[in-house]
Design goal:
Leucine-rich Repeat Variant; 18 helices; globular; disordered C terminus; hypusine biosynthesis; oxidoreductase; HEAT_type_2; ARM-like; repeat
Length: 308
């Protein structure tokens, strides 16, 4: 008999803002993502509509909708993006989700926000448009499928397709990709392509090449660097991520993503720095630290180790 909770149980947990801890609700949201049905997407969408929820939770919900790729949720994502009274981080994630879903009808609203005053929004919208246009080419889609499809080994729909890298040229390619990653004259879309190619190389060298991205002037870019390092789970990057989290002058969006990356990496260093910021003045940061610590605790439990 399966111990998997029902969709109704997941819905109740996800919508129980008052009584369910955010870590538990986040877990419920990702179980719904794995379930993948239209009904699961509807539950996620209903939760995203709840403005009283935290920006961290709602931004995770928008991210999940992008990953699930049901275009029925596009009107909701567009409505939130179009709402100047909503949280910038949530609106940015809605724009990214629209790019992940890839519906050409979303281009109009994305273009409207390409000149928005908040760089987190206008940069995301431009990347999303570039992704949709890239996917419009049948030749690009064929290349994508030839390299493992849109999700790849990390099982994520990325905001930009990685540059193709052959196994024979991995070592020489790290420097080349790092140069593309840090080319401030290139579009963010093309720099993201280099970023995800470095992620796919999945070595300590490629991870440390990505760490140099924390020097970039774009907070959106820096936050994506942290996200990718969390996917890679390379302990060699824990020190750099800890430095980002400890930097109180850094954008909260970047610090929160660094916290979640440390949760994915785990270890005593991560536990210590995350614990240090569980009462951070930025709600999105403190909540991310609690979620990250919960993840570390879960995977450290004997039952989790036994089931791997």
């Amino acid at each position: 008999m399966s111990n998997q909770p029902s969709l109704e149980e997941l819905r109740v947990c996800l919508l129980d803002i008052a009584n369910s801890p955010i870590a538990k609700r986040t877990h419920a949201a990702f179980l719904l993502r794995t379930e993948g049905s239209n009904e699961a997407a509807t539950i996620i969408a209903d939760a995203l509509r709840v403005r009283e929820d935290s920006s961290l939770m709602r931004h995770e919900l928008a991210y999940i909708l992008g990953q699930m790729q049901h275009d029925s949720v596009c009107p909701l994502l567009e409505t939130i993006l179009d709402d100047e009274n909503d949280d910038v981080i949530v609106r940015h994630e809605c724009a990214e989700a629209l790019g992940a879903i890839g519906k050409e009808g979303s281009i109009d609203i994305l273009q409207r926000y390409c000149s928005h005053e908040a760089p987190e929004i206008y940069e995301t919208c431009q990347i999303a448009i570039d992704l949709i246009n890239w996917k419009k080419s049948s030749q690009n889609v064929q290349k994508e499928h030839a390299h493992g499809g849109s999700r790849g080994e990390y099982l994520s729909v990325d905001p930009a397709p990685p540059v193709a890298v052959t196994a024979a040229t991995k070592e020489a390619t790290v420097e080349e990709l790092q140069a593309k990653l840090m080319d401030a004259k290139a579009s963010l879309f093309n720099r993201y392509r280099a970023m995800f190619a470095l992620r796919n190389l999945n070595s300590d060298a490629s991870a440390m090449a990505l760490v140099t991205g924390f020097q970039d002037s774009s907070a959106l870019f820096r936050h994506e660097i942290a996200y990718v390092l969390g996917q890679m789970q390379r302990s060699v990057t824990a020190e750099a991520l800890s430095t980002v989290l400890r930097n109180l002058d850094e954008h909260a969006m970047v610090r929160h993503e660094a916290a979640e990356a440390l949760g994915a990496i785990g270890g005593q260093v991560a536990v210590e720095v995350l614990t240090e910021f569980t009462h951070d003045k930025e709600q999105v940061v403190q909540e991310s630290c609690h979620v990250a610590l919960n993840i570390i605790d879960y995977w450290s439990a004997p039952t989790a180790e036994a089931s791997e």
